[in-house]
Amino acid sequence: MSRLSLTNRLFLRLLPALLFAALICWWLGPRLHQPVPAILGGLLLLLVLWLAVHHATAPLRSLLRALAGLTASYRDGEFNVGVHWQGQGEVGELVDAHQQLGQVLRQQRQDLVQRELLLDTMLQNTPVAMLLIAGGGDGEQRVVFSNLAARKLLHGGWKLEGQRLATLIASLPDPLQVALDNDGDSVFAVPDADSDEEELYHLSRRSFQLNGRPHQLILLRLLTHELRRQEVLTWKKVIRVISHELNNALAPIASLAHSGAELVRRGKAERLPEVLAIIEERARHLEGFIRGYARFAKLPAPQLQTIHWADYLTGLQQQIGFACQLPARSLTSRADPGQLSQALLNLLKNAHEAVADGHAQVELRIGAQAGWIRLEVLDNGSGMNEAVLHNALLPFYSTKRNGTGLGLALVREIIEAHGGRIALNNRAEGGLCVSVLLPA
User: Fold this and answer.
1) CB-CB neighbours of 59 under 10 Å
2) Contact predicate 220/128, CB 8 Å
3) Distance (Å, rounded) from C-alpha 80 to C-alpha 96?
4) How far is it, in rounded angstroms, from Cα 440 to Cα 429?
5) Contact of 201 with 191, CB cutoff 8 Å
6) Which residue in 59, 337, 415, 430 has the fewest CB atoms around it within 10 Å?
7) What value does the CA radius of gyration of the chain take, rounded to a whole number of Å?
8) What distance in Å separates the CA atoms of residue 249 and residue 228, rounded to the nearest whole number?
9) Per residue of the chain (440 residues), what is the pLDDT tens digit?
10) pTM exceeding 0.90
């Protein structure tokens, strides 16, 4: 019987009651000639039917109550309860579906707990100080999450959750107060209480909506150690480059000086001019190398003047060749003519050197673009690979045999001192495009 469907089970449970009711009707039929007894017989028949249905559906009603309780347990987050049912059929399938749902929910909750534990472990142990702030106005903003780094930096290691942001800020050093009060990202320095040095921090802030309320995620990253490491690496690179250039220049000079002295001792002075010319050439190369470093290190602030680009580029074409469609004379900028010439001449010279056979096609394009002046220097060389594109603007990086790695770095320094930007990209048709944006 346990394998019968729900309809068949109910039919078999109701069949005895129906037979009993039919027997009563058969027995009472010839005897009930009055209306009232007939009504009583009908009521008796309904009562028997109700009792039969109530008895037949009792297990099903009990099961439905159990399923309702099971669903309530799922709603409350309790997935360790279950329902037992011996039958199979439709009801058995329903019970099995609930049991499988409970297993899935239990597994999902365990996975969620594990992920939350992993995420919390990562957030608590990251060196970046993290604050999650909830609320609208400054007086209403409260800390709803903080990791260990944030507690150590902002509150001596004590818990921050629930504190008002305004109260927390009031107890912090002035630079940190200013950074947290202002909107947006910032870099600031905080005096170190244990030494005379300063600790440099970067603050980033992102706003979003969570459960219908405004929230802010604030990240405070200590930059001092990374900057010191990068500073040491930079100094090592500088020393390496300078040592290389000095050795390349001084070793031939010392060798040639010895050779000149030997020629004088042997009375062969006719070769001395050649030896002295090479010594002079190497000395001038060394002088130019040192002058380039000094110029990069002591770049003055730009002295801004109004530049009419049509006249300016015409004068630049007299110093180095390039193709250019001159703009209208109304196109102007505020810039330092000397520094800008130095930057553009470096770019144009590099464009000419990009083609080894001397058939360089160098073009300079200029135009206005949403409050900017856009300059593009294009060549027909072989372009740059990804590694060179990524590092070409860094100081001391060079792919040339005798390069100092300061040319493009100096160009970048000049452009950024004017409030502009520079970017390098390979052209689809071959060659390199150097894009410069300057304020209009």
Assistant:
1) 15
2) yes
3) 15
4) 29
5) no
6) 430
7) 44
8) 31
9) 445 445 555 556 666 666 666 666 666 556 555 544 555 555 566 666 666 666 666 777 777 777 777 777 777 777 777 776 666 667 677 777 777 887 888 888 888 888 888 888 888 888 899 999 988 654 578 899 999 999 998 888 888 898 888 888 888 888 888 888 887 888 888 877 665 677 888 899 988 888 888 888 999 988 877 777 776 776 777 677 677 667 767 777 788 788 888 877 787 777 778 878 878 877 876 776 677 666 666 677 888 899 999 999 998 888 888 999 888 888 999 998 888 988 898 899 888 888 877 678 899 999 988 888 999 999 988 888 887 877 777 766 666 666 666 778 888 888 988 999 998 999 888 889 999 999 88
10) no
Fill in the DSSP letter of residue 302.
P
375: Cβ–Cβ under 8 A, 6 or more apart, which residues?
344, 364, 365, 366, 435, 436, 437, 438
| Contact residues for 279 (Cβ-Cβ < 8 A; gap 6+) | 252, 253, 256, 257, 260
Beta carbons within 8 Å of 398's beta carbon, 6+ residues apart: 404, 405, 407
Domains and CATH numbers, the chain: 6-108 (no CATH), 126-222 (3.30.450.20), 227-297 (1.10.287), 305-439 (3.30.565.10)
At 297 the three-state DSSP class reads helix
CA angle (301 as vertex; 337, 343 as ends), nearest 5: 45
Residue type for 439, please? P
